[in-house]
Records
---
Amino acid sequence: MLNLKRPLCFLDLETTGINIGKDRIVEICLIKVSPDGKEEILEQRINPEMPIPPEVTALHGISDRDVQDKPTFKEFAPTLSRFVGNADLAGFNALRFDIPLLAEEFLRADVDFDVRTRRVVDVQNIFHKMEPRNLVAAYKFYCNKELENAHSALADTKATLEVLKAQLVRYENSEILNPDGVPYQPVKNNVDALASFSQQHAAADLAGHIIYDDNGKEIFNFGKHKGKTVEEIFRIEPSYYDWMMNADFPLYTKKIITSIRVRRF
């Protein structure tokens, strides 16, 4: 059983594509694990209000016809928000894709969903640090099973939950060395430790455009100002903030840079 202080929601999204700022959810599945071990499932197909490209349908099997009569994300958002509640979050590649895209959908639906108040466990990052592979290989490696119906939201979400449980057993007393010859810390059955261990770097805006430096300051992770503090650049070059707000950045990134800008005053 997972050692939890509050519920942990495992999630997986199927989408119209991989552009966090533009693409939409077509299917979402969550498994909420409570501290007492109880598991609840919420699964829903979503009308993305945009065409699903044929090459994407070929991947996850969901077509425009499959979602034409389904609720939009805005219609489904209140139900989803109530289900998640105050839970921490977990997923496979969740930090780089699922959670940033989900945050975008909530912002478009005008529903407050602050990820910064939650711990996030990225099972893929734990896997990649210990055994670099993808979800199908992870499921085979840790659970010794073939993943059937891969790219089905429910199958992928269940597999992610099973993989994390197997990782906790496998690495409980791990002395495996990283590429630099330094022993990895054991993977502890604790959401705080798992969230910390599964981070690649501390991103302020989910998409990784703004990250934290060693002193906890927000810095740019792209472009001509990469490595420089956001607050300082906005002070000496205010037009850079305006450019970002008018450019094709995710809404959550714009929300973060706005909070940094307002903080100056």
Note: Residues 8-197 form a domain with the Nucleotidyltransferase; domain 5 fold (CATH 3.30.420.10).
---
Amino acid sequence: MALSGRVEAVGAKVTTLQAGDEVYGDAPTGAFAEYAIVSAERLAPKPVNLSFEEAAATPWAVTPVQALRDVGGLQAGQKVLIRY
């Protein structure tokens, strides 16, 4: 489950994040809650130029790229038409 937000608190062994940090990433469960407990390794600093909504959607953007490249065999210079 993709998520983004502000770190409320960190565990004693967490050295990469601190309370107040804006982050995004994914959680195995519970990302639709107001608060979520997430391993620090699953989070990254939220880019300042992205909103929380945009940052939360970022992990999902990788899946289509992987499908087109790895499964579909898309090569540099080829074009794809995306219809929605």
Note: Residues 52-71 form the longest helix (20 residues).
---
Amino acid sequence: MVSLKLDSHRVRFTRYDHTFTSEEAINNLGSLKFSQSNRMPDPKDPSRIVTTTTTTTFSMAKEMARSVCQRFVDARFIESVDGKALPIFPLKGALFQLTPKGINILQRFCQRNGITARHVMDVLESPRNTMQLVNLERDTETDKLSHDRATIEVIFRRFAGQDGPNIKSSISTSDSDSLSDYSNGIVGVKMARERKLQDGKSYNNTFTGKGAVDWLMDCSTTIERRETCLIAELFLKYGLITMIQDDKSFPDSNAVFQPSKYAIYTITERGQRVCGWIARDKARDANANPNNTTYDSRGMPRDSNNARLTHILGDPALRLLFREFLRYSLCEENLSFYLDVSEFTANYHKAEKAGTFAKVDSVRETLAAAYGELLSN
């Protein structure tokens, strides 16, 4: 996206800004160049700042480039301007644009790398930059999702809708494939006000398995359906949602969660308590204090503010909840900076212990990384 020319294109009588053709995307990937500048002090004169520009080039065949573009579509980073789903990314003849999710991802990348190219800033400053993604916590070593109950409950609050259910007036609108309802990540999954199922009973506030997967794909940092199904399975495991009608024709009879348009789910009473629709029980969770730490009435460690913050930052669930709080306070970048610095410090000590700083190149790379973090944040 940084190296792709995003321009205005006309389709019939409508002009679309910040768009690109499928052919432009494939050609760009076929001969991709990305330049990044790092500022660091001159080793001979620390008072001088030296700017080093690194240019990375990629080259790939058209079919490989089309496959990469298809991954972008599957991850909901880009979409056809007409909103129609395409079974395979075309070599030419189609017009695409960044989704609100894709713009959010691009914005984070540009902030981390200090990119201020005009054509990119135009997209980031456009009215389509509305998404506030749920940043899924991951293990720094394996990149696997954190799946403890507390973390899943934080994700679930956004999924269900903290301000109440995202009710649609009819079943057809709640089950539609339109993604416009998920332009900002604040409202929850689309639900039908009332739905009559095969057992003859009517149920309120229901949603489909496909609807759940769509919300998780569009409003969180997951990039593949397998992870969305895993999260939905954890919603079931922790008693936050329940299936009220299965899809008899679903191919995998052993599937815990069915990402199908005909599998119907609803929020359980426990789920309603977790997301704040109804009052929560005051009884403390039996698993909330595994280390025998003493807590005050707000659930915080009885210790200094520094100890409390350390406890929050060291717990994936609390860290995710803290990030949500910072997002509402418009200072989420502070946490991102802290985590980046912590990761850099850990890598530094690891390299120091391994003795790699005996090489000049390693020292330069470390200094460049440090200045890169400083400038981007």
Note: The domain at 7-124 is CATH 1.10.10 (Arc Repressor Mutant, subunit A).
---
Amino acid sequence: MRAINDETVTDVALEQMAGTSDPRLKEIMAAAVRHLHAFAREVNLTPQEWLEGIRFFTAVGQQCTSYRQEFVLLSDVLGLSALVGLMNDKNGTGFHSDTSLLGPFYRENSPQFELGQSIATKARGKEIALYGCVLDSNGCGIPEASIQIWQTDEEGDYDMQKPEASEMDLRGTFHTDSEGRYYLRSVLPAGYSIPMDGPVGDLIRAQKRHGLRPSHIHYLLGAPGYRELVTALYIHGDPHIGSDTVFGVTDSLVVKVTDQDSDSPFPYLPGIRYDFTLASADKGQVSGRVGADPAQITRVAQGGGSTR
């Protein structure tokens, strides 16, 4: 029997896991054990600190519901979500628009809208137009490309944060026309604080961070034969563009709201024009999502599987 002490326990643990049949699971868990043990040694983790960490992660899990994903939020504020997305981008081929975070407020099966309609069914903010094209890497329009869009209202709240969280607003699904064009109406979203009433909020306060996100609009685009694009457009002039608490802003995704544009399908409205570019799909590289509908995650965790 091999003696176990603070120097040998890592190797002993790895030896026990050596028979893992799934090669990827074996690789990931071996790396996780090595790095976790190295972390504990580096900070000289005490039993009290270890237990406090256990309490923290327990509280994060307890905060998760069908409408709230505290673990995704934690990943976001630690920069892990951004890192995974950026690494995933490097694995693909072909030019595409820059990506951003899916975030913890995405929902599957958003309402279907016709081009030109407004996703603001309840919100009463400043109306704006959103329009442009979905292009391939050669600059040609992609017909019937799917565009899922979601955002906050004029007060900085998502529909999932409202008292009637089951009622969707300021989100929807559109399809481009035969030339790859899209156009719709919405309201100007407000920047907002991430949810601060849970353990992630406690962590942000302890780190003396503001916990704020700049005004933005989420997009999830896809078409057969193309790699899915998860991104967002950030409104120029927001005071937190340079200090997004979840590290989602890229210069190419910062946009200005123009007062009026004669080329707009809605020339009487202020608007945002943006052309998105999708890369061709490689085998095994169709989706770029770092996140999921909170309800989907909750069902899987409860052992019910996913129905979406």
Note: The radius of gyration is 22 Å.
